[in-house]
Structures are given as structure tokens and as C-alpha cells.
Amino acid sequence: MLRALRQAKLYGHLVARGNRLYHPGGNEPVCSLQMAQGMLRSGWLIFQDGKYKITTEGQQANDYEERQSQQHRRCPSCGVLIRLKKTLRLSGSSRTFRLYECRRCGAHTWDETAATRVESG
User: Fold this and answer.
1) CA–CA separation, 15 and 47 (whole Å)
2) pLDDT recorded at residue 13
3) What pLDDT digit, counting tens, does each position of 34-74 carry?
4) At 2, is the secondary structure helix, strand, or coil?
5) Considering only Cβ atoms within 10 Å of each terminal Cβ, which end of the chain, N or C, has fewer?
6) Looking at the chain, which residues constitute the CATH 2.20.25 domain(s)?
7) What is the pLDDT of residues 18-32, one digit of tens each?
8) Under DSSP, is residue 96 helix (H, G, I), strand (E, B) or coil?
């Protein structure tokens, strides 16, 4: 999801081919069409003129996720730096779950935060 938001921000939009989304001219998918539908429901992407474009809320979510992923976290078992493996956001909820994996022992750690939703008025 984070990769798709980054690519949409970088290229201005994403295009659908088959059941996957690609950046313009790209041959490697950035996410599935099913994930894109979830981002449409969340308000992070809009579908306009045959293109998936990032919204202001999507840019804020991308910036927030990037800040969170850059924080240094350590494995509770061995103390080595852990890396972000997956980010999940429940549809219709402001809760975000992050799965981290230890580089040394492979232990998994979950992190849960409540992202602030921006109301447009």
C-alpha cells in the first residue's frame, strides 16, 4: 500500500492493467486492483479519467507512514534493528497495524496506531 501511494505521488497517477496497478510506463505492478479499491474506499485514491490519482488525504497518509517507517525500532528478543514488513489499515477505521520483522532472529512484532482522519468541509 505504501509503495502504491509513493508511486502515485511521484508519477501523479497509476494505471490499471488486468488486475494490477502500474506507474505510467512501468512493467512491475505496485499493487493489486483489490488493494486499490480499498484505497478508493479509504479516500486515499480517486479514479478519474481512467487513472488512479492520489488525494490530499492519501498524501497525508503516505507522509505519516513514511515518518513511522523511518523510526528506528529494535527487536524485543535480541535488540537488533527491525524492519517494517507490512502495513494494514482496516477499511472504515482509523486504526493502522504494522508488522515488523527482526533482521537477525526473524521474530515478528506488531504495532498499532490510530491515524488522524482529516475531515473535508
Assistant:
1) 10
2) 94
3) 999 999 998 999 999 989 999 999 888 888 777 766 666 78
4) helix
5) C
6) 71-114
7) 999 999 988 999 999
8) strand
Residue 119: strand pairing partners: none
Expressed in angstroms, the distance from the first to the final Cα of the chain is 26
Beta-bridged to residue 87, according to DSSP, are 98
Find the helix or strand (DSSP H, E) in which 41 lies: helix 33-42
28: cell is 512491475
Sheet of 20-22: strand order equals: 15-17, 20-22, 31-32
Q: State how far the alpha carbon of 36 is from the alpha carbons of 49, 72, 73, in Å.
A: 16, 29, 29
- CATH 2.60.120 for domain 71-114: no
pLDDT tens for 76-112 read 888 888 888 888 777 766 677 888 888 889 888 887 6
